[in-house]
Every structure is written in structure tokens, then in C-alpha cells.
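Journal club side-thread
Mid-discussion, someone asked how the predicted structure for our own chain would compare to the paper's figures. Pasting it here so we can look after the session.
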Amino acid sequence: MRILGIDPGYAQTGWGVVESDGQHNRPVSFGVIKTSTSQPDSQRIHFIAKSVGQLAEDHHVDVCAMEDIFFTKNVSSAIPVAKVIGACIHQMGLQGLPVKLYSPPTIKTVVTGFGGAEKHQVQEMVRILLGFETIPRPDHAADALAAAICFAVYDFSRIRMKLP
């Protein structure tokens, strides 16, 4: 199974593709989609969604795992990210691909064993779990790979056992 992990962002959206058989995970590719502040909001969001769709097609993915929106104080900064999430979900739906959203604490728990793990701890576990010599860069790409690992660990067994 090929999993497209997405770390949604307005300026940079991280992505990573992981191949998994439920026991072994192998990195396929990763990177970031960047947008320019000089572009109108609608163009930025459209570009991100279109790029995510192209990545899904290019890498023949079966499912998309995405970090869900999570905020504590600043709602206004979360709104553009929420728009990106919605656009990506729509794009995946057009392509017939299921999307699973995970909260940041869930991803941290699955990848590190601790929901309050620091960013560098998650990235180090991504490095270890996927066999990289160094932490994947940029940070958003490593976070996207963590979302893909989360699906592979958290949901792959449920799918194989046909659990809800």
C-alpha cells in the first residue's frame, strides 16, 4: 500500500510517500509544495490542492493521511490551513482516494509513543523508522512522513482485520 502523508500549510505544505505492508515501511519520496505571498489566496490554495493531486497520481498512492488542524489560541492563523485541508480533501475525493485525518497528538503518540513529544523527537523517530541517515528536510516533509507512518501503524491493521 502506498500512503501519501500531508502536513498542510499555507506557505509550505509538506508531503511524503511511504510504502507499507503493515509491518515494514519504506520511504518512496518527500518534499514540500511552496506558494508565494504575492499570489491571491485562491490561487495558492488551488495550486496546493492541484499539486497534491498530481503527487498522488505520480506515486500511485492508495490513501492519503493528513495532519488535522490543531490550534490553542490563534484561530485566525488556523483558517488558511483549514482551507488547504478542505481543498486537499476535495482533490483526493475527485481522484477516489480516501483521506484519514490525524491530530498532531495522535501522530506524535503513534510515531514516538508520547503525545506531547517535541518536534525534533518526532523527526528523529521518522528518521529511525524509515531508515534515513539524517532527518528528512525540510521539517514539513518530515512531518508529512510522520502522518504516513501514523496511517501505516494505526490504521493498516484495522483495514486488514476489517474493523470499523
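Post-session note: The chain has a mean pLDDT of 92.
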